[in-house]
Predict the 3D structure of the following.
Amino acid sequence: MKRITPTILIAATWLLASSFTIHLMGDSTMAEKNLPKAGAERGWGMMLQNFLDPDGAKVINYAQNGRSTKSFIDSGLWAKVQEAVQPGDYVFIQFGHNDSKQSDSTRYAAAWGAYQDNLRTFIKGVKEKGGTPVLLTPVARRWFKEADPSLALRTTGEGGRTDGAPTKNLDRNCHGDYPAAMKAVAEETGVTLLDITTKSLDWLESLGDEASKAYFMISTGKDDNTHTVACGARKVTELVCECIREQLPEIAVRLIAPYHFVVSADGHGDFTTVQEAVDALPNYSHKEISTVLIRKGVYKECVSIPHTKFRVHFKGEDAESTIITNDNYAKRNWPGRDFAVGTSGSATIYIHASYITFEDITFENSAGEGKQIGQAVAVFTDGDFLFFKGCRFIGNQDTLYTYGRYGKFGGIKRNYFLDCYIEGTTDFIFGTSIAYFENCRIHSKKNSYVTAASTLQGQKYGYVFKNCTLTADPGIDKCYLGRPWGAYAKTVFIDCELGGHILPEGWHDWEKPGKPDTKKNSYYAEYGCTGPGARGPRVKWAHSLKPRQLQDYSFEKVMYQEQDGIIWNPYDNR
């Protein structure tokens, strides 16, 4: 075994501790795109941040459509890069597509002349600022040309056949002398060169003419074999990252395992909507957990995750600013119909799949409240083993609907909420599922009811709140911990901090004509709760847990039922 010396450990620690910015200089194949004007077109520089640890490496993209080394300088963009570069930063320089346009004097820079001179200018200027310049040869054009018609496409091996169709060959000289001219400058100056031209040519050649179309704008009906769509931009970024791993270890330590999909409202990902990412997920994924990063942004859409899309981890970039929202509500009519959508039809997101993790995401129903609105669900859960970590649930009446029933083994479906924020007005946590709330903040915006469990008869567990904090808007002072939507509701609060808005009686029976006796059949209990809302006396039919009963309300006991025969670790979803 090779011994790791203290010097190596110190160097590795320094690499991980230091942070830097990667400044991108280039043309349209790298550039930011003005959406929606740009349509499906994406530059690979828009994707690079998705492959980097955001705490250690930041990307600033100065590339612009149509730029050459000459016009990048003349337009003042180079001056902006020079001003921004700090010691320890990197500058990725990739030109060549537009330098070759001899008919345009504003852009043309001869390969063995001005082009090289401009590259030297960039290199010198970056080094003077304490940065590290990196040269990248241009991304290949997807130029396939008809081969000799006398040749036929043949398959190899036993049983190989000739189908008589002429094949197309990739033109590997799509950039003339520019890649070679850049390599010469790299050798002369001792600057690292990432040969993206060769990497992308090899990739295109491996795909062939037809398969490669999907990655370029030609797939949208345009006669454009130069510019990529999102999947093409992602692929080029992957090629760049391959080169980084091979040649730039100091940046490679900041590369992260890429998400399977990235959603970004501004085009810096594979999709611009969450539903597109859901639809692209594999069905019945038994082999691996799919990962989806949702970047900061407001995604106004109704999302539905079918039961076939299980074993997925959805990660928001930041819970405060990664928002999935919609404004449907129970009393709104279905389009073209004369009946209302109802409570179940009003949700912003429907989760029918199991083994799903959501982290750092806000789910919102922005419909408001009032008699004309009624219920307006933010999240509708119908899957088993759902894990919400650091998420926010924003709404009014019926914010969180834990609908799920009849899980894989015949039991009620389970939800786990850790470090979450849930707000609402009336019955804003309600439903049938088993749900375990840990270290959550539960916030009331109206004098009303916090929970409305509808636990099924014979079901051992309903809602369990552990180490949660219950708060309220100013002036709110008459809230019940819960009332039974179903006669057999079960809700328990353990070691929670209860604000002064919680009424002394704590619970409401919600008696209705013809309904079984809720006082007799429901089970409401507390243990170790503190704060002004923990005062009593509670209603006579409520319970106080004894210390010996606490083991029955551990996470393991509540979430793993004996008949399941399985052990679930929510972090296995990640």
